[in-house]
Amino acid sequence: MKTFLAVSLAVLFVGCAGPRPARMGVTNGKFIPCLDSPNCVSSQTSDQSHGIEPLSYKGTPLEARARLLATIKGMTRANIVTEQEHYIHAEFTSAVFRFVDDAEFFIDDPQKVIHVRSAARLGYYDFGVNRKRMETIRQLFNNALP
Questions:
Q1: Where are the domains of the chain?
Q2: Rounded to an integer, what distance in angstroms lies between the CA atom of residue 133 and that of residue 39?
Q3: DSSP assignment, residue 15?
Q4: How many beta carbons lie within 10 A of that of residue 26, not counting itself?
Q5: Quick one: pLDDT at residue 10?
Q6: Number of helices and strands (H, E) in the chain?
Q7: Rounded distance between C-alpha atoms, residue 34 and residue 73, angstroms
Q8: What integer pLDDT is reported at residue 122 of this predicted model?
Q9: Which CATH number fits domain 2-143: 1.10.10.10, 3.10.25.10, 3.30.310.80, 2.60.40.1120?
Q10: Cα separation, 119 vs 106, whole angstroms
């Protein structure tokens, strides 16, 4: 019985990462919209339940990008997946169940903002984890001002 329970839990937890979404990135300056589930936030939506303010910055986009990368790399269980001139994709893994969330950042230099999108790969509800993480990133990013 103990072996069955251990194997069952192992199978459950191995699958918690979920596959990386096929549709990610920025097209014509826009992320893909959040789905109806409450496990996603985006600065490019007018929907109040999913909406979040973008990060604002002064200086050059290169400086903002470097500061953002340093912020993300300084966080626990963060992994940079894609690092482009105006786009960053990072994965954040939860400590206990190893759930993976995808965070995207788009540096919009004419507006002097960094648009953000963060979504859970699995499940329907994330208990506000993605919103809290983006607000933590905002705070760390702003505190890292030169």
A1: 2-143
A2: 12
A3: T
A4: 20
A5: 40
A6: 3, 6
A7: 25
A8: 87
A9: 3.30.310.80
A10: 15
